[in-house]
Specification:
Blueprint (H helix, E strand, L loop, with lengths): L16 H11 L4 E9 L2 E8 L2 E8 L17 E5 L4 E5 L5 E5 L7 E6 L3 E7 L6 H14 L2 E7 L7 H13 L5 E4 L8 H8 L3 E5 L6 H9 L24 E4 L5 E4 L12 H7 L1 H7 L16 H7 L5 H51 L1
Parallel strand pairs: 8-9, 8-11, 9-10, 11-13
Antiparallel strand pairs: 1-2, 1-4, 2-3, 4-5, 6-7, 12-13
Helix pairs in contact: 2-6, 6-7
């Protein structure tokens, strides 16, 4: 039962009774639990117990390497580690996973972070607010199982509290049920509030290049653990300062996963996330005359009535439709890929069966 107590060395990294139960079958084999803090090709860094503290070890991942991109290990995973052999033997079941679709034509999902409690969407106030992009990030965040949080960075660049108030209000309107915070890593404004929200759990920091994620990570950690580059003057976009996903301990408890800037944020099986991001539209849709209402031109459409009456912005409805279409398109492509793979596997089995049958016939003569 020592794995369950609050004094366990990995408690600060998110270890709890649930993960201890998952690990229990491996304990008798001389293996130890570890949390992945960084992944490289064929290897990963993990924090593992070391007496009353922890240490970082490098382990080979060959035994758990898989061709399934959704089951490949990533930062935030809990693993079963063989410290003597230097191998990761198994991964513990995930509670949450932040997944986006890749830009490849294979329509594959990519896991960015695992076992996350808070998905922090960083948005730079140095640029004009892109509410549609915020909604896209929130859709993936809700779908992951984590609790979303929008952080408006570089608040010190906003000319006055009235303008900042309007920007916060616009973001809140596009983020129902989501806390919105304005922070400035430069002045420290709002950083303590954000640190208090994130304390004790696992958080992933998401956003475009130039959103100020690395600067914010440094402010939260309390030291310069992430390199920072100035954003380009001409468009406010940053370079990829962070090139890998790293798990960083926070001084107030909990850990932060900093991620590289994301240019592409494609949906992946995110119908539930769309519904939560646009919860007010889903609530209105319950009063439509037809259950399969497309909210286009149908009579008795409560959603269109809300738009006509000014209660629902047309922009929100357009964004809702766009993300639903994209998600359906990705799902169709994925289904087509799976069907094609099944056909290929079936053909291989048929061909192998014919070869075996021909060999048997030849041996009978």
């Amino acid at each position: 039962m020592s794995e369950l107590n609050a004094a366990h060395p990995l408690t600060a990294y998110g270890w709890d009774a649930g993960f201890a139960d998952s690990f229990a079958p491996h304990a008798a084999d001389g293996l130890v639990p570890g949390r992945i803090v960084r992944v490289d090709r064929g290897r990963c860094d993990l924090v593992v117990p070391d007496g009353d503290g922890v240490r970082t070890v490098l382990a080979d991942t060959a035994l758990v390497t898989t061709g399934d991109p959704l089951n490949i290990m990533c930062t935030g995973d809990w693993a079963v580690v063989d410290p003597a052999g230097g191998y990761v033997r198994a991964l513990l079941p995930r509670r949450t996973a932040f997944v986006r679709s890749t830009s490849s034509k294979r329509s594959e999902g990519q896991v960015l972070a695992a076992n996350v409690d808070h998905a922090v969407v960083a948005v730079s106030l140095a640029l004009e607010l892109d509410l549609g992009r915020i909604e896209r990030f929130l859709t993936l965040a809700w779908e992951s199982g984590a609790e979303p949080l929008v952080v408006l960075t570089k608040a010190d660049l906003v000319p006055g509290p009235d303008v900042l108030g309007h920007l916060i209000a616009d973001t809140e309107a596009a983020s129902p049920g989501v806390q919105v915070l304005a922070v400035s890593a430069e002045t420290g404004e709002g950083v303590d509030v954000l640190a208090a929200v994130l304390a004790g759990g696992t958080s992933v920091l998401l956003g475009q290049s130039g959103a100020g994620k690395s600067t914010l990570a440094n402010a939260l950690v309390g030291e310069d653990v992430q390199a920072v580059r100035a954003a380009r003057d001409r468009d406010g976009k940053g370079r990829h300062t962070t090139t890998t996903r790293n798990l960083l301990p926070l001084p107030g408890g909990g850990v932060l996963i900093d991620t590289p800037g994301l240019r592409g944020v494609g949906l992946w099986d995110a119908e539930g996330g769309v519904a939560q991001t646009f919860s007010e539209i889903e609530a209105l849709a319950a009063d439509c005359r037809f259950q399969d209402c497309g909210h286009a031109s149908e009579p008795g459409c409560a959603v269109l009535e809300a738009v006509a009456g000014g209660a629902l912005p047309q922009r929100r409805l357009d964004s809702y439709r766009k993300l639903l279409r994209e998600n359906a398109h990705i799902a169709a492509r994925t289904d087509a890929r799976l069907r094609a793979e099944m056909r290929r596997e079936w053909k291989l089995k048929v061909t192998a069966g014919r070869h075996i049958a021909a060999h048997k016939r030849g041996g009978a003569h």
